[in-house]
């Protein structure tokens, strides 16, 4: 027996000392394969269905003292495992039950570094681990992604700000499509970036489980490759003055992060799709994130809210002077109650931006808090991030007294290690106070919404507000977001504008902003876009004139039991079906005029009562033209639908079978 045990030990030692120079890792369905090479540093390739999608790509990390993952890279241990589990999402922005099925390979090296690789049926990922006794300082991480010649990308190129370095950004850019080799070293972009490597394949590059470490940017080099770049640690900061002051970095260090010696670093995520429609429903980033740090999430209440900022409180048909005052917010509370919104947002201006206790003299917060409570509507408050940080404990106590269960904090515009830790600290403090939080001027969630479900959504998107001062939110842009930004988690686009125009008839105007596209297109966004706390940005005075439309909008859920993308093409169109209880909601958006036929075979056997909102006969030139109707349907029916240019539709289906939930 002793001889057999000795032979087994020697076999393991030999296997580890003379590890094959290339290790292979397959997805559970064996359609995706990673080839991991240790011949010259650490590189990997990724193929799907036998097609090479990612060519040899480099992984490395260097500490400030000179130690490198690739230095003296001798294998200590190789381990594998397979996982087949189901995650129950605390706040299900796509689906409540999430299959988590993958194969994993871990390479442990003798130099204190390890790398874990995972292969899923819909993507791949890796992360670096360190195992040092003392704290470490990360000088640099290398993540280079190489693609076949001719690869293209939808890349959010950052527009550098005057007087600030390239790492200052609100993460709100367009996603122009172009050849990857046209992107130079000056082309900095944040993730997700969507790559079209060849044929119909798409790869979403992003990250997950970002913690105590800077976020990943990508940059070109005039080849079919992208290289990661990370904001160095901020040594000193200065305050950028203005109406919304914020901290910007004055001097950066020659390293990325000081952190614990034994830890795991963010996942580098590669979402793989054979068809465009596989992207918007993908939840790989969520699966890779750390489980919730909040044990009891029962106090977190998703739902819909109003916000007044985009329309500049431009109310009409009211007996009071509209503006930042008690009467206007009472009007918003009444509107929310009338049409089923759970809360209203009190945006910038309710207090001094630099002092949350210096309340606008035209607003009586005690009166509003009492009135909102009487009406069964919650108040939500905007804050400036620098002010919230300074007044955090006392502000949260005051919010609790007002019955506030949701706040926004704004103007952050960075993701270096210090700011990443700011997100975590603020979110934990809000969780302790049972308050949900949304970050604006923010990087995408990247799985943080799984770890801290009370960070219910984030901005990090060129959204509805841009209609005020630009023509950037085109139908094509809005139809790029589900395939790009949305891969990294929920996004606060703030749809619902009730002044709508065809793209060629669009006019920029403050106070009465237009959307480019139709009213039905705006309505569809509430179902197409992931956001557990959807914000209606339209004018309630106009909404009161259209009660059937607002009743339909106000009845829409914001979290879902299931999501199915029926058909889609990046920047072209999307048709999304979502289930909540005994109801289905089907929504579509298009760039250009389009006729489709809905196959309802995914429905259950019961009959359904349908409420439909489709583009009106004249929506191609009068964007606010829509038609609401009702009908009874079954899964055997085929529904023809016409969408105008920049158009859309929404169908609400309620099962005629009785269910108890």
Automatic annotation (TrEMBL):
Residues 316-461 form the Glycosyl-hydrolase 97 catalytic domain. Its cofactor is Ca(2+). Keywords: Calcium, Glycosidase, Hydrolase, Signal. Residues 26-291 form the Glycosyl-hydrolase 97 N-terminal domain. It holds the Pfam family GH97_C. One of its GO terms (molecular function) is carbohydrate binding. Residues 559-653 form the Glycosyl-hydrolase 97 C-terminal oligomerisation domain. This is Glycoside hydrolase family 97 protein. The lineage of its organism: Bacteria, Pseudomonadati, Bacteroidota, Sphingobacteriia, Sphingobacteriales.
């Amino acid at each position: 027996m002793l001889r057999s045990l000795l032979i087994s030990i020697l076999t393991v030692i030999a296997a580890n000392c003379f590890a094959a120079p290339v290790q292979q890792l397959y997805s559970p369905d064996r359609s995706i394969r990673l080839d991991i090479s240790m011949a010259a540093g650490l590189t990997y390739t990724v193929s799907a269905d036998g097609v090479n999608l990612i060519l040899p790509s480099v992984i490395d990390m260097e500490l400030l003292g000179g130690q490198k993952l690739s230095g003296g890279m001798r294998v200590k241990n190789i381990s594998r495992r397979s996982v087949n589990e189901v995650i129950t999402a605390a706040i299900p922005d796509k689906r409540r039950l999430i299959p988590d099925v993958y194969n994993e390979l871990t390479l442990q090296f003798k130099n204190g570094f390890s790398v874990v690789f995972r292969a899923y049926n819909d993507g791949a990922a890796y992360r670096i681990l360190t195992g040092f006794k003392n704290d470490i300082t990360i000088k640099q991480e290398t993540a280079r992604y190489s693609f076949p010649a001719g690869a293209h990308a939808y890349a959010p190129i950052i527009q550098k700000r005057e007087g600030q370095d390239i790492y200052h950004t609100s993460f709100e850019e367009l996603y122009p499509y172009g050849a990857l080799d046209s992107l130079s070293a000056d082309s900095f972009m944040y993730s997700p970036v969507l790559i079209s490597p060849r044929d119909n394949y798409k790869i979403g590059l992003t990250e997950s489980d970002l913690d105590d470490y800077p976020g990943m940017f990508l940059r070109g080099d005039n080849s079919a490759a992208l290289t990661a770049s990370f904001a160095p640690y901020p040594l000193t900061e200065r305050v950028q003055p203005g109406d919304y002051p914020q901290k910007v970095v004055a001097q950066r260090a020659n390293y990325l992060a000081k952190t614990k010696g034994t830890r795991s670093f963010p996942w580098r995520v590669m979402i793989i799709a054979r068809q465009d429609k596989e992207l918007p429903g993908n939840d790989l980033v969520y699966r890779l994130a750390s489980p919730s740090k909040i044990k009891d999430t029962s106090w977190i209440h998703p739902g819909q809210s109003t916000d007044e900022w985009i329309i500049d409180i431009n109310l009409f048909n009211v007996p009071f002077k509209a503006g930042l005052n008690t009467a206007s917010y009472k009007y918003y509370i009444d509107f929310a109650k009338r049409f089923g919104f759970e809360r209203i947002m009190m945006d910038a201006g309710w207090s001094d931006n630099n002092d949350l206790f210096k309340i606008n003299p035209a607003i009586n917060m005690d009166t509003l808090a009492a009135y909102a409570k009487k009406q069964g509507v919650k108040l939500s408050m905007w804050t400036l991030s620098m002010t919230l940080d300074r007044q955090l404990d006392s502000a949260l106590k005051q919010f609790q007294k007002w019955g506030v269960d949701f706040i926004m904090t704004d103007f952050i515009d960075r993701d270096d290690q210090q700011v990443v830790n700011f997100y975590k600290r603020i979110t934990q403090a809000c969780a302790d106070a049972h308050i949900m939080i949304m970050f604006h001027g923010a990087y995408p969630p990247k799985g943080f919404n799984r770890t801290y479900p009370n960070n219910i959504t984030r901005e990090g998107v060129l959204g509805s507000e841009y209609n005020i001062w630009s023509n950037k939110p085109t139908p094509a842009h809005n139809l790029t977001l589900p395939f790009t930004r949305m891969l990294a988690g929920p996004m606060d686009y703030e749809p619902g504008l009730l002044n709508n125009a065809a793209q060629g008839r669009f006019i920029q105007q403050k106070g009465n902003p237009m959307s480019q596209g139709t009213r039905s297109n705006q309505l569809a966004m509430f179902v197409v876009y992931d956001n557990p706390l959807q914000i209606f940005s339209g004018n309630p005075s106009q909404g009161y004139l259209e009660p059937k439309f607002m009743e339909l909008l106000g009845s829409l859920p914001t979290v879902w039991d299931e999501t199915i993308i029926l058909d889609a093409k990046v920047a072209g169109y999307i048709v999304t079906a979502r289930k909540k209880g005994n109801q289905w909601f089907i929504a579509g958006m298009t760039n250009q005029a389009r006729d489709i036929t809905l196959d309802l075979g995914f429905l259950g056997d019961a009959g359904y009562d349908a409420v439909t909102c489709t583009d009106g006969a004249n929506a191609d030139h009068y964007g606010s033209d829509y038609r609401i109707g009702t009908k009874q349907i079954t899964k055997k029916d085929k529904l023809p639908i016409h969408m105008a240019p920049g158009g859309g539709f929404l169908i609400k289906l309620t099962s005629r079978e009785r269910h108890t939930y």
